[in-house]
């Protein structure tokens, strides 16, 4: 556990930096340890929601906080061809198929819900489909993928041990979206492998996604990282804090006169970190 780790903080610039980001960034920095590597990656493949202005603002706020990457910041929108190359490999192995269904058609035909709460695709296009007027999404044939792997891969969760994967309960997930041509699961696993990330740190809202991402890692022969999902900032009602309360935005706090040190030490940030797994030798206030 005390081996040097490579961690990453991978925000999507769909808005300004908020305290949830601060928890994630700080947690990743802490989990890298003093001799590890801490990387920042901008996950901006959704170019309609992630604008250059928001990316610049996010990076400026991170600099102000003193959260700096040990290597040049990787920006996903600049590497789309790398993700396309992975899709080509999976397509060649007949692990992907085009799906022409609309959201509505899927909702009407679906009967199951995945562990992350999403609708399980009913498999309508799995054995061949075409549609002259529609662009397809590309789905992973999960049954075939798990046959190839001959297992449902699990993962190592720090502080908890080996977790059983549930990829079979997700069905045929989308790996290439209609609008971006790629997907979150594809880009995140590719980049973690490329950048040598050994410890994937992120919020507990992405815990279930690990099942699916482990399948991609195994299919592509990428190394298996360990995972550490941190607690989320909770509102007074026990629900995940949303952005509706502008007061938690780092920009707003700056304008009110907060220093970077005070923001990093914000009671909500402390509370979330206290509820997360951190090895004793990496606790910041030990
Ligand atoms: Zn379909």
UniProtKB/TrEMBL annotation:
Pfam families: tRNA-synt_1c (PF00749)
One GO cellular component, as annotated: cytosol
EC number(s) stated in the UniProt entry for this protein: 6.1.1.-
Top EC class of this enzyme: ligase
Gene3D superfamilies tied to this protein: HUPs (3.40.50.620)
Protein family membership: Belongs to the class-I aminoacyl-tRNA synthetase family.
Superkingdom per UniProt: Bacteria
Protein's name according to its UniProt entry: tRNA glutamyl-Q(34) synthetase GluQRS
Domain Glutamyl/glutaminyl-tRNA synthetase class Ib catalytic stretches: 6-251
Taxonomic source organism: Gluconobacter aidae
Keyword Nucleotide-binding part of the UniProt annotation: yes
């Amino acid at each position: 556990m005390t081996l040097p780790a490579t961690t990453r903080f991978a925000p999507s610039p769909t808005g300004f930096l908020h305290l949830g980001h601060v928890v994630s960034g700080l947690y990743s920095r802490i989990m890298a340890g003093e001799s590890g590597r801490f990387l920042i990656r901008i996950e901006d493949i959704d170019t309609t929601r992630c604008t250059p202005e928001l990316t610049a603002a996010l990076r400026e706020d991170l600099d102000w906080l003193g959260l700096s990457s040990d290597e040049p910041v990787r920006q996903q929108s600049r590497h789309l061809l790398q993700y396309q190359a992975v899709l080509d490999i999976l397509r060649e192995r007949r692990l992907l198929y085009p799906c022409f269904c609309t959201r509505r058609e899927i909702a009407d035909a679906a009967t199951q819900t995945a562990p992350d709460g999403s609708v399980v695709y009913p498999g309508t296009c799995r054995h061949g489909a075409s549609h002259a007027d529609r662009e397809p999404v590309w789905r992973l044939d999960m049954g075939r993928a798990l046959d190839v792997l001959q297992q449902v891969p699990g993962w190592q969760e720090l502080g908890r041990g080996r977790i059983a994967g549930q990829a079979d309960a997700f069905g045929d997930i989308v790996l290439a979206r209609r609008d971006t041509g790629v997907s979150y699961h594809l880009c995140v696993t590719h980049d973690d492998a490329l950048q040598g990330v050994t410890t994937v740190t992120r919020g507990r809202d992405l815990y279930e996604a690990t099942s699916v991402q482990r399948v991609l890692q195994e299919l592509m022969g990428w190394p298996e990282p360990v995972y550490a999902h941190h607690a989320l900032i909770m509102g007074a009602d026990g629900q995940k804090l949303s952005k509706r309360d502008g007061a938690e935005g780092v920009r707003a706090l700056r304008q009110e006169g907060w220093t970077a040190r005070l923001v990093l030490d914000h009671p909500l940030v402390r509370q979330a970190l206290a509820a997360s797994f951190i090895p004793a030798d990496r606790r910041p206030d030990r």
